[in-house]
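FAQ
Q: What does a multi-component entry look like?
A: The components come first, one per line:
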Amino acid sequence: MGIIQAIDLCKTYKLGEVSIEVLKDVNLVINQGEFVSLMGPSGSGKSTLLYLLGGLDKPTSGSIRLKGRELSVMKDKEESKMRRREIGFVFQFYNLVPNLNLEENIMLPILLDGKKLKNYRSRLDEILELVGLADRRKHTPRELSGGQQQRVAIARALVNEPDVILADEPTGNLDSKTGTEILELFRTINKEKGKTIVQVTHSYEAAQYGARVINVKDGRVWE
Amino acid sequence: MSIIIKFTLRNIREKKLRTFLILLSIILSSALFFASTAISTTVEMMILEQMRKYIGNADLMISAGRQAKSGFISPNLLDNYQGGLKYAVGMVHGYGEYKAKGETIQIRIQGINLEDLDKMNPIILEQQHELSPFKGNKAIIGKGMAEKYNLKPGDPIGINMHGFKKWFIVSGISQPMGPFAEDGESTYIVVPRETMAGLYGKKGKVSTLYVGLEDSSSQDLMVEELSKAYSLYRVEPTISKARIKSETQQISAMFLVIVAFVLILSMFIIYTSFKVIMAERLPVIGTFRSIGATKKMTNRVLMMESLIYGILGGIIGDILGISILKLMIRQITSPWMSNIDIKAYYTLGQLMMGFGVGFVLALISSFLPIRKVAKIPIKDIVLNAIEKKVKKQRWKTILGILFLTIGIIGPRIVPEKIEIAVDIICMFLLVPAVVMLVPYITNAFLKVFQTIYAGVFGNEGILAAQNLRDNKNSLNNIILLGMSISVLLMITTLSQSIVNDTVNYYKDHKYDIAFWSWPMDRSTESRLLAVDGVDDTYGEYQKYGKIEVVGKNAEIRYMLGVNKTKTLNYLDLDIEGEVEKLLEELDEGRNIIVTNIFKDEYGIEKGDYLKLKAERGILDYKVIGFFESNYYEGKYALISERYLKSDLAVKQYGEIYIKTNKDAEEVVKNIQEKFKNRNPWVRAIKEIMKENMESNSKILGIFKGFGILALVICVFGVFNNLIISFIDRKRSLAIMRSVGMNKKQTIKMIFIEAFTGGLIGGLIGIIIGLLLVMNIYKLIEAIGGSMKDFIQISWISLVVAMVAGVVITIVASVGPALKSSKFNIIEAIKYE
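Then the predicted structure of the entire assembly, as tokens:
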């Protein structure tokens, strides 16, 4: 049994009178410690699949299991806790809170988990070292470059030591050099920390960083 | 052009809450400004109408002088006077009682010839019965009285006068005009002049001569001329229009100070609303510009919107202003006028000004945001590449600190000559000062709160405090709350201070009843002592009126004759030093004690001589001491009773004070019964105090009403800001949800933010409020008043201010909090 399991997953959106089937009977198993790339063109349903796997959206039918627990039956409180502790999200546009500084952004999951910040100081230092931003800790997102902002997002995703990192086009908004740096960082995290990483990308080069590439097109997946 | 208007109207229609908020701010500003300026005109007209009822169109009145043996003069006094007079008619006044239908009404009687009445205060008779010749026991009554008591022409009416009943025949019933105009208070009858004079045993004489002038504007000049020509008589203007105008303008000025704060508040709301409008319209402006529209054209589109708000708000504001004016008049007029139709008097100019305030307010407040957008290069608008980086503007901080320093220190160091103007400017400088410093003050508070919140609210508390930092919408809310709460607090504190002043004033009175009825002599005092319940009396000699201090360009408006054995038993005079010794000294010669205000104003020292222009000539009075009092703006002095009587020719008591050994109200009734034929003025002190407080509370009620309206504008402003804030922050909230914040935590965080915003808003409101009160106290001192003894900051008001701030923001947060738990995280997180 994998760390993430999708069984007969379907997702339909309603656009006015029209129903659009974004995902059609998707079955997928992702194992602990894997670096998986979900690859496909725009509108293929890859981001929707990622959000469903992370519990940010609900499937129309089918089920998703994270570490053996069924996501679709979870209540808001339980689901939020799972997002805090088991998953770390990284988005294409970084999604940092603009009025919080770098440290505060990284520590958000800790704060939301009701933990005392002072107990996580050394963890913060360690992560900042890992993402190479130890000297920018008091800066706000506005004062950082795109690549630096994405490193902050990765640090935030790692701070609570989740087993799974879900990344939606993490290099989509970056130049190729910075993009490569970010992907290298993901590879390091995967290799050294043993984290399971699922990234969504439409770039062939980026997809190759994953040990496994899953193709998504017209709502269906194959390898 | 029609497309531009359509586009603008569609924008206005689409954002209903914002349109409502902007219009509400403009409407209330216009309405309150109009009502505040027009109230002086209305009160002036009401006073004039009230007085005209009695004196018609007469400009001057002449009566017997102080030295006259009787209070009557010849009606032909001015027959030989040349020039400037339209008429001079004599009248004999009288009072009486009329009993009918089980009630007794006070009647004011005018003894005047009909042809004279026609010149001075014309009436139109509806019915008459053998009216000519108007002689003997004929009387004209008003239609109101005739209808109320079912009186018809030819009916007899008995009037109790001076202890006997005089019978008249109703010979005419007048329309409600002239002396018969309805005012809900007094009832008049007109009888032949000679009949009335005969009742006083003064046939051929009149009590007052009323003079109409060819040119009413020469009133003051004619008073001077006639006073010289007839120096044995007292010549006075019937109505001093200049004095009424200056007094009524003071009422307007008081209201306008509050309105100024409402205007600032409105300006801030419209300015912030237009900033949001600009942010929303940027893409459309970009499209317009990219297809060839000039800057001027896009500016016109945007200005058109504020123009529409200004015009609509100005017109509706004027309409609402008329209703507010009527409400204000109803509030400040006496209860006996409550059954009379309140007429609001205003000029076209005042209406235009009310409209203009709304119009200009809309244009000015929207101009800055519009100009800012006009400066953005077209490429940046189209590419959405506008620099969003918030720069901390140091000049704002420096200016804020400068304004605050000037606002606080200014009134304390300013030279006397420009004190009033500087005090007002400093008062208004405090507002922009605090607005500019609010981000720093807020951050300072947040640092403290963040630590406390960690313990009280947990990590959501820390997050809430972090979110409020440098959050523009929250800062706007704090500014709005701060300004409106401070205005309300200032009004409440001043109101309470005025109430305290009234109470303090009567604390100085150590007697139970005040009495006045002509003649005010020893026989009257003896009669009073015989009334059941009267324990002791004190006839106070006083001189009210201008007494010139020669060579000092000063005047004393009230002089009290001190009786060394009695005065202090009845009045609490705050004399400095050994009081008994000073009173002894006062009695020894021409000595005087003046107020500390008078001392400071004219630089007087002990031992100085004041040259008083008294009835006996210019006399030297030696200053032997000082006392604390702000009555008559400090133009109040004490001399010995002996010298007041001899030098200032005071022959009668000004008032008689009574101490009772029974319930004061009961004794008042006993006195009224004993003196019923003399129509005495007799009031229990407690009653006077109650009436004064009621009358004060009415005007203060309007002030509070203005303050509450400011708070209403603020509440809508806060609602608007919180909605905008929610829209702006939707993405941030979604990010937090994506990293594991649950719905309950989100709602908790939003409410803690609201609570904190309200708390800081309340605290800032209290800070500005207290600074404003301090400056107003300086302003009152500059005007000539003194409030230092009784300005009291009510702790309850402060707590209420804080609670109000918190409640407003929490209630306004309910909608955004509920919305936050329902939105779709993915939709909110996506970038368009």
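Q: Is there any commentary attached?
A: Sometimes. For this entry: The beta strands of chain A are 4-15, 18-30, 35-39, 61-66, 69-70, 87-90, 164-168, 196-201, 212-217, 220-222.
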